[in-house]
Amino acid sequence: MHSHSPEPAAGQTAAVFKRGDFVLYRDPSRFWAGEPGHTFPCRVEKAWASGDYELTELKSLRPIYGALPQYMRLLPPADAMCDIDTAPLNGEGALEMTSAAMAWLAQQDTRTVQSGRVPERRELPPQRG
Predict the structure, then answer these.
(1) Residues whose CB falls within 8 Å of the CB of residue 125, separated by 6 or more in sequence, listed in order
(2) Is the pLDDT of residue 111 over 80?
(3) CB-based contact 50:20 (threshold 8 Å)
(4) Is 43 helix (H, G, I), strand (E, B) or coil?
(5) DSSP secondary-structure letter at 95?
(6) For residue range 17-26, what is the model confidence (pLDDT) as tens digits?
(7) Which residue has the higher pLDDT, 88 or 45?
(8) Cβ within 8 Å of residue 27, ≥6 positions away
(9) Burial (CB count <10 Å: 0-12, 13-18, 19+), residue 52
(10) Distance between CA 120 and CA 123 in Å, rounded?
(11) CA gap 80, 75 in Å, rounded
């Protein structure tokens, strides 16, 4: 646990994360020492009044105490869901869709049919370059 509050760099505001956020965390000690495996995805478990965080590394479920927000970046849900949002429904690209995307699309179609609504034919948003 750190005894001081981390200060943001000049011209920046301190990032604020909340419980349940997914973040990319870079272990500053390992990074500056040149060690491999210094950056990994985590889930925020607790935010402390001192300004640091308790995280859980997603792959190993290892707890990380005293994580500083300067070494954390939010992993936006939009990026995690991009394959579904931009999934081609026809053509060769449909074969490359992940099984999770296919399951989500099938679930949406089932909900529409069960509710008795006529399915809306909407175009997917354009793919990001």
Answers:
(1) 85, 86
(2) no
(3) no
(4) strand
(5) G
(6) 999 999 999 9
(7) 45
(8) 38, 39, 64, 71
(9) buried
(10) 10
(11) 8
